Amino acid sequence: MSDSSAMNNDHWRELEEWRGKIDEIDRQLVPLLCQRLQFAGNISAVKSRIGETVLQPEREKEVFANVLKQADSPLMSQALEKIYHSILNESRVFQQESQQNPASR
After folding, report:
1. How far apart are CA 80 and CA 43, in angstroms?
2. What is the CA radius of gyration of the chain?
């Protein structure tokens, strides 16, 4: 085996190690995201009882502020803002669907 071939194998092994670490994080994230959606559904039920709308812009600003202050860099902050924008959008859809069909949660 040539030196470049051995290095190439080392790179592939390193790539697989990093992918394995991401897979482990995903195994931790998915249950947390499911729990977050469940809580959003519970919030939806409370909002419905008290006559509040699903969209709460002030609360969303608070969530963004809480998340973004934990970012390690401006680039990570930018990425987290986009990720949380998607999470909040999907949570809002989930809340709306939960209000329309509570048994589907």
Report:
1. 23
2. 20
Sign of CA dihedral 88, 62, 29, 45: negative
Can you read off the two tokens belonging to residue 44?
Answer: 């939806």
The DSSP letter of residue 1 is: -
Q: Write the secondary structure of the chain as one string of H (helix), E (strand) and C (coil).
A: CCHHHHHHHHHHHHHHHHHHHHHHHHHHHHHHHHHHHHHHHHHHHHHHHHCCCCCCHHHHHHHHHHHHCCCCCHHHHHHHHHHHHHHHHHHHHHHHHHHHCHHHC
| Confidence at residue 65, expressed as pLDDT on a 0 to 100 scale | 95
pLDDT (tens digit per residue) in 7-27: 789 999 999 999 999 999 999
CA separation for the pair 7, 91 (Å, rounded): 45
Write the pLDDT tens digit of every residue in 34-74.
Answer: 999 999 999 988 988 999 888 889 999 999 999 999 999 99
